[in-house]
Design brief:
Largest sheet: 2 strands, antiparallel
Number of strands: 2
Structural class: mainly alpha
Order of helices and strands: HHHHHHEEH
Strand content: 5-15%
Radius of gyration: 16 Å
Low-confidence stretches: none
Protein backbone atom coordinates (compact mmCIF):
# COMPACT_ATOMS: atom_id res chain seq x y z
CA UNK A 1 0.00 0.00 0.00
CA UNK A 2 1.41 3.39 -1.00
CA UNK A 3 1.34 6.17 1.58
CA UNK A 4 -1.29 8.07 -0.43
CA UNK A 5 -3.56 5.02 -0.36
CA UNK A 6 -3.80 4.79 3.41
CA UNK A 7 -7.28 5.29 4.82
CA UNK A 8 -7.69 8.22 7.13
CA UNK A 9 -9.75 8.60 10.27
CA UNK A 10 -11.26 11.79 11.57
CA UNK A 11 -11.43 11.83 15.36
CA UNK A 12 -14.27 13.49 17.26
CA UNK A 13 -12.41 16.79 17.58
CA UNK A 14 -11.78 16.96 13.82
CA UNK A 15 -15.46 16.29 13.15
CA UNK A 16 -16.77 18.94 15.56
CA UNK A 17 -18.14 22.18 14.23
CA UNK A 18 -15.34 24.70 13.82
CA UNK A 19 -15.68 27.42 16.50
CA UNK A 20 -15.48 30.06 13.75
CA UNK A 21 -18.66 28.57 12.28
CA UNK A 22 -20.67 28.98 15.49
CA UNK A 23 -22.66 31.89 14.16
CA UNK A 24 -22.96 30.67 10.56
CA UNK A 25 -26.52 29.97 9.57
CA UNK A 26 -26.61 28.46 6.11
CA UNK A 27 -29.28 29.83 3.77
CA UNK A 28 -30.03 27.00 1.33
CA UNK A 29 -32.50 28.95 -0.87
CA UNK A 30 -33.16 26.75 -3.91
CA UNK A 31 -31.19 23.92 -2.28
CA UNK A 32 -33.57 23.50 0.69
CA UNK A 33 -34.58 19.94 -0.25
CA UNK A 34 -30.93 18.90 -0.70
CA UNK A 35 -29.96 20.59 2.58
CA UNK A 36 -32.72 18.67 4.40
CA UNK A 37 -31.55 15.30 3.05
CA UNK A 38 -29.21 13.00 4.98
CA UNK A 39 -26.53 13.43 2.31
CA UNK A 40 -26.93 17.20 2.38
CA UNK A 41 -26.60 17.28 6.16
CA UNK A 42 -23.46 15.12 6.05
CA UNK A 43 -21.89 17.46 3.48
CA UNK A 44 -22.87 20.49 5.57
CA UNK A 45 -21.56 19.01 8.80
CA UNK A 46 -18.24 18.08 7.18
CA UNK A 47 -17.69 21.47 5.54
CA UNK A 48 -18.37 23.40 8.78
CA UNK A 49 -16.26 20.95 10.81
CA UNK A 50 -12.78 21.83 11.98
CA UNK A 51 -11.33 19.69 9.19
CA UNK A 52 -13.57 21.02 6.42
CA UNK A 53 -13.02 24.64 7.38
CA UNK A 54 -9.25 24.15 7.61
CA UNK A 55 -9.23 22.47 4.20
CA UNK A 56 -11.09 25.39 2.62
CA UNK A 57 -8.85 28.03 4.20
CA UNK A 58 -5.72 26.11 3.20
CA UNK A 59 -6.92 25.55 -0.35
CA UNK A 60 -7.76 29.23 -0.88
CA UNK A 61 -4.46 30.41 0.60
CA UNK A 62 -2.31 27.80 -1.16
CA UNK A 63 -3.90 28.06 -4.60
CA UNK A 64 -6.06 31.18 -4.88
CA UNK A 65 -6.46 30.71 -8.64
CA UNK A 66 -7.92 27.19 -8.24
CA UNK A 67 -11.36 26.14 -6.90
CA UNK A 68 -11.09 24.94 -3.27
CA UNK A 69 -13.82 22.32 -3.71
CA UNK A 70 -11.15 19.89 -4.93
CA UNK A 71 -9.59 19.84 -1.43
CA UNK A 72 -12.85 18.47 0.01
CA UNK A 73 -13.39 15.84 -2.66
CA UNK A 74 -11.51 12.84 -1.17
CA UNK A 75 -13.16 13.39 2.21
CA UNK A 76 -16.65 13.66 0.73
CA UNK A 77 -15.97 10.55 -1.35
CA UNK A 78 -14.87 8.63 1.76
CA UNK A 79 -17.87 9.83 3.77
CA UNK A 80 -20.60 9.46 1.14
CA UNK A 81 -19.30 7.81 -2.00
CA UNK A 82 -20.95 8.71 -5.30
CA UNK A 83 -24.02 10.23 -3.63
CA UNK A 84 -21.98 13.35 -2.83
CA UNK A 85 -21.33 14.00 -6.51
CA UNK A 86 -24.73 14.20 -8.18
CA UNK A 87 -25.29 17.46 -10.04
CA UNK A 88 -27.58 18.76 -7.27
CA UNK A 89 -25.12 17.85 -4.51
CA UNK A 90 -22.23 19.50 -6.35
CA UNK A 91 -24.22 22.74 -6.76
CA UNK A 92 -25.25 22.62 -3.11
CA UNK A 93 -21.64 22.01 -2.03
CA UNK A 94 -20.53 25.03 -4.04
CA UNK A 95 -23.17 27.26 -2.42
CA UNK A 96 -22.17 26.07 1.05
CA UNK A 97 -18.47 26.62 0.34
CA UNK A 98 -19.16 30.19 -0.75
CA UNK A 99 -21.13 31.01 2.41
CA UNK A 100 -18.45 29.47 4.63
CA UNK A 101 -15.58 31.34 2.96
CA UNK A 102 -17.49 34.63 3.03
CA UNK A 103 -18.35 34.02 6.69
CA UNK A 104 -14.60 33.70 7.37
CA UNK A 105 -13.91 37.05 5.69
CA UNK A 106 -13.09 35.76 2.22
CA UNK A 107 -14.61 37.06 -0.97
CA UNK A 108 -15.89 35.56 -4.18
CA UNK A 109 -13.58 36.20 -7.16
CA UNK A 110 -14.91 34.25 -10.15
CA UNK A 111 -17.09 31.28 -11.06
CA UNK A 112 -16.79 28.56 -13.70
CA UNK A 113 -13.03 28.16 -13.27
CA UNK A 114 -11.98 24.94 -14.98
CA UNK A 115 -10.55 22.28 -12.70
CA UNK A 116 -7.34 21.00 -14.27
CA UNK A 117 -6.61 18.02 -12.01
CA UNK A 118 -8.47 14.70 -12.03
CA UNK A 119 -11.74 15.44 -10.24
CA UNK A 120 -15.45 14.69 -10.20
CA UNK A 121 -15.96 18.44 -10.45
CA UNK A 122 -15.51 20.05 -13.86
CA UNK A 123 -15.36 23.62 -12.62
CA UNK A 124 -15.77 25.68 -9.48
CA UNK A 125 -15.56 29.14 -8.02
CA UNK A 126 -12.44 30.79 -6.68
CA UNK A 127 -12.09 33.02 -3.63
CA UNK A 128 -9.65 35.35 -1.94
CA UNK A 129 -8.75 36.30 1.61
CA UNK A 130 -7.09 39.51 0.40
CA UNK A 131 -8.93 41.64 2.95
CA UNK A 132 -7.86 39.34 5.78
CA UNK A 133 -9.66 36.85 7.97
CA UNK A 134 -12.66 37.59 10.11
CA UNK A 135 -11.07 35.26 12.67
CA UNK A 136 -9.86 36.66 15.96
CA UNK A 137 -7.01 34.87 17.75
CA UNK A 138 -7.31 36.79 21.01
CA UNK A 139 -7.78 34.43 24.03
CA UNK A 140 -10.88 36.32 25.19
CA UNK A 141 -12.36 36.07 21.70
CA UNK A 142 -11.66 32.33 21.57
CA UNK A 143 -13.40 31.84 24.93
CA UNK A 144 -16.37 33.89 23.69
CA UNK A 145 -16.60 31.78 20.51
CA UNK A 146 -16.61 28.64 22.68
CA UNK A 147 -19.63 29.96 24.57
CA UNK A 148 -21.31 30.85 21.26
CA UNK A 149 -20.76 27.29 20.02
CA UNK A 150 -22.44 25.93 23.14
CA UNK A 151 -25.33 28.41 22.70
CA UNK A 152 -25.74 27.49 19.01
CA UNK A 153 -25.70 23.78 19.88
CA UNK A 154 -28.52 24.34 22.39
CA UNK A 155 -30.55 26.14 19.70
CA UNK A 156 -30.11 23.23 17.31
CA UNK A 157 -31.48 20.84 19.91
Amino acid sequence: MRSGDRPFALDQTAQRRDPNMAMLFFYPRSHAAVFASATGQTIHDFIVSRTGTALLIGAVLAAPSRPPVVALEPFLAALLGDTAFTDEMKKYTGRLIRQVIEHLGGSFVRRSVKITVPSRYGSGSIYSFSSGFAVNHDDAAVAKVGKEVEWAAKLRG
